[in-house]
Structures are given as structure tokens and as C-alpha cells.
Fold:
Amino acid sequence: MTTPPNPPRTFHVKSFGCQMNVYDGERMAELLGAQGMTAATDGADADLVVLNTCHIREKAVDKVYSDIGRLRREYGSRPMIAVAGCVAQAEGAEIGRRAKSVDIVVGPQAYHRLPSLIADAVQGRPAIDTDMPAEMKFGALPGRAQRQRPSAFLTVQEGCDKFCTYCVVPYTRGAEVSRPWAELMDEARALVDAGVREITLLGQNVNAWDGEDEAGRPQGLDGLIRALDRLPGLTRIRYTTSHPNDMRDGLIRAHAEVESLMPFLHLPVQAGSDRVLKSMNRSHTRESYLRLIERVRAARPDIALSGDFIVGFPGESDAEFEETLSIVRESAYAQAFSFKYSPRPGTPAADMDGQVSPEVMDERLQRLQAAINADQLAFNQATLGRRTQVLLERKGKYPGQLVGKSPWLQSVIVENSAAAIGDMVDVEIVSAGPNSLGAVILEKAAA
Ligand code: SAH
Ligand code: SF4
Ligand code: F3S
Structure:
């Protein structure tokens, strides 16, 4: 154990994973802040570094171990190192064996106990907690910080019961659980009071959220969205990630009817071949997916569609990969993420026959990404000349620039703006590149 004997006073949280992992990182930072610790800008000034890890692909895991080594080389024994997140859940005590200088291991459902784990580590006691307590952590966390950025995440649902054969999430995050309505409405109100104008509702299967409203009526995600739409001061609502099988009529209707619900849907399909989809245990087909996006587009014609793809799933033939390319053509994505299949220990696909060679995967990924990039550019170019609204979120690269998001989740760079971060501005789109748009402000929109 290399830990200094004193309780840490400064901390740095580094998040590596999905948006829910980022949300967890923010909650951990707020928890440590509520304990009287202060945030350091990076590892150099921190008495405690929290590596909030991701286990989804092999590369993500390797990065954690190299980061631990780098921290010790650069900062010596000073910082206490905590490994949090999905690698902590999956590897548990093994982390301490592989990286002796780790002081704390805490899983994604147990991080509310970070203060007592820190106390244990200071005393030289083992500090590992990968429990998945029946009581959710959220009730034990302090309220949200009183200053927030204009756009915030709010985890409403955690875990996954789908067990896609390639995926670790059901093991690292546990079963699907929805947070209760009242707790979510309270957190949303606190966020708006702290300056938030846009909330992105998060869940590994966010559209599987269900619960009861304050009158005891059963509600789905669409009901929650409609209630949030009535919150004064909240102007934009988004949600991610959705599973095709949980995309119910009410939610599709909400896209037609709820003004603050942004026209964007991340709906991963993963592959275009029914045989591959079946082997992935996706429980939807190519056809059912395409029909579903037709219904969504009928409700909200301008919706920007996004997706996730895996190339080189075990047994994927050239012809089956061509079906992935053709589903991309048919779906016309505004953006999409694509990954090379990464075998994950303990998942069924890792033991399947027909593992695809790295060279074939590389070639397929390049072709897929070229197709996706072309669609993304076409989508961006189609917004040229359009008048729309942008929520300004941060400064740009050059003086005078501010950057925000369009309703369709495109990054929009506004030049020489007299507006401020947090403003919602009316703009005209004047340029369109592959990754961002340029715009001029027409006038400051009413709040
Ligand atoms: N719950 C979401 C997202 C899960 S993880 C969903 O079902 O869509 C995000 C993405 O990582 C997945 O959509 C998938 O495309 C990718 N992914 C998951 N496991 C993977 C693996 N073993 N190898 C490569 N990509 C993977
Ligand atoms: Fe993983 Fe599938 Fe669950 Fe998404 S739905 S988290 S890909 S198991
Ligand atoms: Fe990674 Fe865990 Fe998210 S494995 S993608 S951080 S749920």
C-alpha cells in the first residue's frame, strides 16, 4: 500500500465510459465535494484520483491499467487511487492483484459508500465494495450541486436484462431497475434551479423505464417526459440509449406531440443480417427495426437517427457484412458509432466459433465508417440555410466563438456572439462540415 496516512483533501475524477459513467463521475465528484474535499484540475494536484472505468471493449480495460502505472510514475505515492466503474465491478479484487498500487475498488452501484472506503484505505484496511445493494445508491447521495452546466445528464434507469451475447453490461450494471418518479422529478427540479436548460435522460435501456406518477398511475418513459415538459425553465429533453424492443407507441407519439422533446433518437441496431442479430440475441430483426424507424419518422419527419454497429461479430460473413452496409443506406443516419467486435470474458460470444481476423475487421470498419460519414455529412448539409435554435454550452476554440447543439444534436459554432453560455439563441445555419455546423445569431430567443 502506497497511500499516504492522511485523509485526502483534493480529488480528481476521470471518467472513461458511456454517458451513464460520466453521470456517475459527476455524482462522485459532488459526493466528495459534500465531504469537504475540493476538486483538483488534474491528477497533479489531487490527493485522490478516481478512475471511473469502462469494461465494454478490451481497449477500455487496458487503458485503466496503463493509467494506473502512469499516475504512479508521474506523481509517485502521493495520490490515493480508486478504481470505480464497470472494470471495478467486473474484476473486483483482481485489480488489487494486478495493480498493487490501487487503494480502493468500488463498483457502479456502491459508490455512495466512497467516504467510508476512503476512511478504510487511510487506516490501511482493504477497501473493496462491489455490492449491488437492493437499496439504490441514489437515496444515499447528497443533493445535486447548486451550479450546473446548461445541459445535464439524469440517469433514470440502470442495468440491462437483454443479455446480448457480446455485452458485459448486464454483468457490470446488474438487472434493469427504474428510479422512482418523485426522486427523478426532484432531481430534475434541482438541476433546473442550478441553471440547467436541457436534460438528457439516461439508461442502458432508457425506454424500458417504468414507474408510477404521484397519483399512483402507471407511467412509461413518455409519461415522465410529458411531466418534465411541464417543468418551468426546462426547455429541452433528450433520452438515450434505447432498445428497439422497448420503443412503445406512447414514446413515438411523444415525439410528435411534446415540443421540448428534441428530434433525435439513438436506436442501435448493431448489424443488418438476421442470422447475426439472432446470434447476438438482439431479439429484433432487420425488418422489424426498419419498420420501427418508419413509424418514428412518420411521427416526427425531421428526426435525426443515430445508431451503434459492431463489425466482425463471430461468424459474420462478407455477405452478412454487406447487409450491415445496406441497413445503413436504408436508415440514413444523422450519425452513428461503429466498433470492431471485442471478445469479452464471460460473455457467450467470446466462445463462439468463427472469430473474425483483425484484418477483416479493420477493412469492414473502414467501409462502414465511410458510409456513415457520408450520411452524416449529407444530413449536416441538408440543414444549410435553416433557421433553428441553439443552446450555447461552451466556448469555442477561437476567441469570440461559442458552441452549442442544434435540436438534432449537431455541434453548432456561433461566431462573434454577444450571447452567453446558457442562452438559447435563434440562428441561421451558414456552413456545414462533417462534424459541425457554423451559424449566425438572428436574435436572442425568449427563454
Ligand atoms: N444499451 C445500449 C448500449 C450498450 S454499450 C444498447 O443496447 O444499445 C454501447 C455499444 O457498445 C453497443 O451498442 C455496442 O455497439 C457496443 N459494444 C458492446 N459490447 C461490445 C463488444 N463486445 N465489442 C464491440 N462493441 C461492443
Ligand atoms: Fe448490452 Fe444489449 Fe444490454 Fe445494450 S441491450 S446494454 S448491448 S446487453
Ligand atoms: Fe462502459 Fe459500463 Fe457504460 S461497461 S459503456 S461504463 S455501462
In short: The chain is about 35% helix and 25% strand.
